[in-house]
Amino acid sequence: MDTTIVRVTQRIQERSRKSRNDYLARIRAAASEGPSRDALSCSNLAHGIAACGQAEKDSLAGAVTPNIGIVSAYNDMLSAHQPFERFPRLIKQAAAAEGAVAQFAGGVPAMCDGVTQGQDGMDLSLFSRDVIAMSTAIALSHNMFDAALCLGICDKIVPGLLIGALSFGHLPVAFVPAGPMTSGLPNKEKARIREEHAAGKIGRDELLAAESASYHSPGTCTFYGTANSNQMLMEFMGLQLPGGSFVNPGTELRDHLTAEAVRTVLGITDLGDNYTPIGHIVDEKVIVNGIIGLLASGGSTNHTLHLVAIAAAAGISIDWGDFDELSQAVPLIARVYPNGLADVNHFHAAGGLGYMIAQLLDAGLLHEDVHTILGSGLRRFCVEPVVDDGKLDWQSAQPESLDKDILRPVAEPFDDEGGLRVVDGNVGRAIVKVSAVSEEHYTVTARARVFDSQAAFTEAFNNGELEMDFVAVLPYQGPSANGMPELHKLTPYLGVLQNRGFKVALLTDGRMSGASGKVLAAIQVTPEAACGGTIGKIRDNDEITIDVHDGVLSVSGDDDPAARSAEASDLSGNRAGMGRELFSAFRQQVSSAETGATIFGGE
Hints:
The protein is of the alpha/beta class. The chain has 2 domains: 3-33 and 66-182 and 217-396, no CATH class; 420-595, IlvD/EDD C-terminal domain-like (Glucose Oxidase, domain 1), CATH 3.50.30.80. The protein is built from 22 helices and 16 strands. The strands form 4 sheets. An 8-stranded mixed beta sheet has the order 9-10-14-13-12-11-15-16. A 4-stranded parallel beta sheet has the order 2-1-3-4, with helices on both faces. Strand 1, helix 5 and strand 2 (101-107) form a beta-alpha-beta unit. The radius of gyration is 24 Å and the shape is globular. The chain starts with a helix and ends in a 14-residue tail after the last helix.
């Protein structure tokens, strides 16, 4: 094993010793008390099986027939989750074929950041993760289940499902994806059209036509944002069948994988000899493996929030220093849009996650000695699924990359270091995603232009006020201020200015996510402005330095910016409308970005 990975893992284990032991004690106690339908009163059980057929009622009246709880993020508005409409029926059929039962335990909300970008609804996006976690717990709270299957894909949904499932850590749980849509308009062309629209060269009709050619059918968006980073994580963490993340919906292989997930989770309940609860799978080594997968693939910055919250749900404490140190040891071996031109379908065809895992294992960059839903050892995930004569089969992952512009061996990486860095200084701490940024832009020192919203920035751009070197500063975008929305409306405008030769960058306590692109962006600044952070005290013309090489995030002015009184900011417009009034308790309770921006055990 790489010595840095060993050192960071040991540090996490030591830091987490008490909280992890407390968590394991809780799930041991839960396992001893259930899942036990025979412990329910007759009235309890009758309510739980009232809608079942007679054969299922007879089976569930005893204690030996396994019952799977299905928790799904299905809705038919969002392309990524629309395919899940068919899955409960497939799961129930597969369970019945194995002499088991499956019940739809509950649904969880699934909102799409792509729909809400720049809209008021985006203020609910990050908080929806914790709502999903609570919804998952409610779905499983009936104590009727021997295992669970979680059906989810996108940004906050998978982390929320996983946090909720870890609160039932005594249950075996597998994650079941639906897969990406087929490839549409090439990503380079999509980016070009967005920048032309931002520059006023084309109209809304042409922009909408291009966007519709990109996002065109059921399935996950094909760029490597948070949704597809989620799928990578579930495989690297051993919670999802190998090679299944990027199999398109509506295919024979997709249906076989869904049925296989049923058989897999039935094989690890406490009714058999291979009991493997999710709380035992998700340990310190598995969390580190997830971080390494994120870094090696250039994945979403959102997971510097989500992985922290996921780890905490399993009694494990990680921080951004762990990400930063691991990033210096883990090479970047994948380039998928926005870090390259290929989409996840091309990545999958080039060798995909099975190739990546094999490469990283062989180089001593992943912990192999972990538990997974398939048993001990991550080497089991160096395979890919195929359909042979109508049956699911597994073959070894590609031994060589089929396209080195997309996927490379560890010995020939795109970069010797991973895709994320931490910068620190008198402004605070922030995350920078560098996997899509050219090295010539790794350092920007320029005057600040402070904006109170994306709309204010766009107005300044349209008025021709931004033809200069500058750092766009957007404070009061953190979780306590307005729920920490993503700020992607800025991306095409900053890209246009950078193309014109200006040195530009973004500094914010908000988010940018997996679609972070070619412009240097120091995001998720903590402490945030609403909590007294220096970012809320920056004024126009202060000098900002963002230096990825030296890990510096600093501000200087005519006086000491940190000693100033914070500029007054009217946040009343964030407090109501589009359901935001229901989330005031979240804004008051939420923890800092570095501690997961969560309401569970907040600071």
